[in-house]
Amino acid sequence: MLKKRRAQSPEQDADVRRSLVETLYASPASLTIGAATGTAVGLVISSMSNGLAIHAVVAALCVVAALRVFSAIFFHRQLLRGTAVASRNWELAYELGAWAYSGLLGLMGLVTLTGSTNSIIHMLSVSMATGYAGGISGRNAGRVQIAIGQVCLALLPTALGLWLEGSIGYRVLAVAMVAMILGLAEISATTHRIVVQALIGRRDKSLLAEKFERLARYDNLTGLENRMAMQMRLREIFETSEKRADAVAILWMDVDRFKEINDSLGHMVGDRLLRAVAERLNDVVQGRGRIARFGGDEFVIICPDTDRVTAATIAQEIIAYFSHGFDLGDHHLQMTASIGYAVAPQDGRDMDELMQHADLALYEAKGAGRNRASSFNWSLKERFNRIHEIETGLRRALEGDELKLLFQPIIALDGGDIEACEALIRWNHPVLGAIPPSEFIPIAESMGLIEALTGWVLREACIAAAGWPGEVRVAINISPASLKSHELPGNVIAALLETGLPARRLELEVTESIFLDDSGQTSTILRELQRIGLRLALDDFGTGYSSLSYLRSYRFDTLKIDQSFMAGISANPEDRAVVRAIGNLARDLSMDTIAEGIETHDQLAHAREAGFTNVQGYLFSRPVPNERIIELIEAGPLHGEERPDPVIHRRRLA
Predict the structure, then answer these.
(1) Are 612 and 413 in contact (CB under 8 A)?
(2) Could you tell me the domains of the chain?
(3) Single pTM value for the model
(4) For residue range 623-635, what is the model confidence (pLDDT) as tens digits?
């Protein structure tokens, strides 16, 4: 039976085995009481018997009982001290002691039953053996082989003694005791299974809790701490009185153009790249800080006891290490990184403030061209606050009446008539005052509001132009971001239908920058716009994309030369040569030409000499409201009047 139970018990893992062994020593009090009871009964039996064998067995029983008690006490002292306990050694020690004690109890019953005729000590020895076996079968079921061994060693010798005594009653009791052994063995086995299942369940629950805690604190892809763990660690640094965060740096790193790699080469390559980046960061930072993956391709490094100079050094080491490239199986990638860093207490005295400032520094590094590190300074905060104010106000401005359009006339050199007017957007913020388009249009692009802004300008400009006399056109600047949207042609058609303006009186101006990132979508939209019947103008010609192949691919109606050429044309022969060349080119391609920035009669004369068909500038009119434009159109030809107004840098709806 015992051998069968051993074969059926699988080897448990260390945690479960240790727990099972601890159940053997779980109650020193019960073991002490059991040892004392057995010793007391043995001494009573010994005192009532003159047999030398009984005295020897009882003496051995008392010694073994005492040793077991001392062993249990020592085991618990080891646990209390936190000393590692060798489970197998302590299990063996308990097994030997338990079997020795049980065997002596059984031997005491055998010797008493065969060596004495005193029915009282017979009853005491049999009761002691059966009572001990019944209790131990449950108490030690955690190690079933020990429990069954104790039951057998206590009861089999006693049953033998009952059988050898010879009377019928004793022999019936012997048979019942053997049956009791089988029953107690099954009870021990069943209890053992229940105990093991409970311990395994507790272990699995503990392992699951550890797994969830790891998932909660560590990034599954890179093995680094995650955002939550990093924030907890940083909060501890700030909250610990010994470290008041007076020397902690946060480096916030972003892998440049990671999304392009992820989209073009796939997520598998992207994941391998992130793991390689994590390894690089560990190699560089080593013991100087803790690294966390903050999300996506962003990593945060916390460096306690680190000043700004050291933080800058670590950041430059990381950027330099990136230049070595990444070998990812079939792909060798040249990557760069942008890093922003902030140092407490100069840049912030709490966790949230320092994190925000490191993020602002990262934003500055990316805006400055990437592949660089930027330190936080308070001017960044002021700039960010202004940007945030503009972002908040833009949505309100589109819904309210803060935006307005001004118009600047475009004059035909042949006759001086106003042939078109360029629509220029203006915004008067209720708190910040007048905000130039060069500032708020890029923010609108980054917010995804450029289409709404373009739609507003289209509608308002078409409404105004529909009320102009004659065939005067309205020219509107279109952002490169708008040209990537398939909604633009639909918005143009909607504005024309709503206002009744003929398509031929609408001219859309685009800059050469649209050809720098032309994936084919821009070309499609330009051709859709031309099919509507409106005019296309190429604005700021001569300062952008150097290739002229697009003049052959697209039939632009108008070329507008950049005003920088006109500004120096009187004194600079090179500017005059460029202006003449552009005029000749446009004439040969049957395109109209507009010279921007005309402020003097000398500039006007050069534009006329170069063969330009139209001019625009302060010499004729600054940007004015719609009511004034109607007056200028109705007043007849404009021949130019020099004005002392300073040139105001303007960014139209680009």
Answers:
(1) yes
(2) 2-211 (no CATH), 227-376 (3.30.70.270), 387-635 (3.20.20.450)
(3) 0.59
(4) 999 999 999 999 9
